[in-house]
Fold this protein.
Amino acid sequence: MRQFRIQYFLISFLAIVLLPSCAVKTVSGFKEIKKEGVYEVSYFSDKATDYVYKAHISIYGKDFGGIFIAKKINDSIYRTAFTTEFGNKLFDFEISDNSFKVNYILEEMDKKIIVNTLKRDFMLLLKQEHSYDNKYESSGFEVYKSEDNKRYNYLFLDAESNRLVKLVNATKGKEKIEIIYVPESSILARNIVIDHKNIKLKIELNFIQ
Amino acid sequence: MKNSIICMFFLLTVFTINAQEQKMTAAEITAFKNGVINVSKNTKTLTADFTQFKHMDFLSNDIETSGKMNFKFPDMLLWQYTKPYSYSVAFKKNKVSVNDAGKKSEMDLSSSKMFAKLNGLIVGTVNGNMFDENEFAISYFKTAEYNISKLVPKDATLKKYIKQVELYFDKKGSMVSQVKMIEPSGDYTTIVFKNKVANASIPDSVFSN
């Protein structure tokens, strides 16, 4: 028993000591600048725009498509919905920076693992304000690091255009979700790819309206 | 989930038709049904252009998509979106194949009773021969331009997805010219058919994706 405790202690100790060496690679080699502030994502921010995208979802080798819709309905809340190409609604959520409500979800999709994945992805995509506590720089990018619910968001801005081009959601040691944006204007990304690093799930969105 | 996705497909929609609707008399209903059944019996093939409008209450504008439809008696259907993206679904006997901008997938419907039902519904929607009182509670209306049948599903599963299907028939040709599918939420999809051509020769190869 005593030996077991010692082993346990040693393992814990080693884990703590070694942990920093497995730190997330997202900004390794970047120049760190101590800076705090709030970064506001301007994509999806225009209340007059219906953000309608053709979606391709690839999950564990299976592909399917649909239409992704997001609309800012007031200063803090988005309605977001997903339909088939034929117009049938698969889900309809209400999302703000700190709330999530299911208005509708197709019964067959109403499973905890699916709802939680959709919740995480779309709350991340539609998050408007990121309070950052650190900034990094490298050639071509400025990066804001923001704490988000036991994880971290790294927001990559193109240094020249100052537009958001990538968002990495990571734990202390591992990247979990990466969102790549191809900007059309300050309020619109014409192509968005949400790629999961821990599960085989990739969502690609192409603006159509 | 795929079942539902495809099924939903047929739950298409209608445009707001502003002309006043009147209930048909019993004699008018009989004459109307006979006309539709007669035309659908003599329709061996049908091609048409279609425009689809997806209405969601929270959007500023309906989502508009359009394409071409090919039907061949008794059970082949190609539904092809060309604008603003390329996406097509082919129904051939018990097989459904999808071509999503080059990404292809296929599924077998024979194992699903629900699907068989839906397949019947699809074909019924295209040729208008949907007078099955066991499946739907049906009511009949007329305007100066259209004969209208409104179908409320009786099947509990179908009911979850569709509140009502409305079929608008040209008075002249007894063919479906608009379909409106209303979801339980009240959001709806309208499909308007144009340039209908009946009984032109269509090779079977058209129905492979």
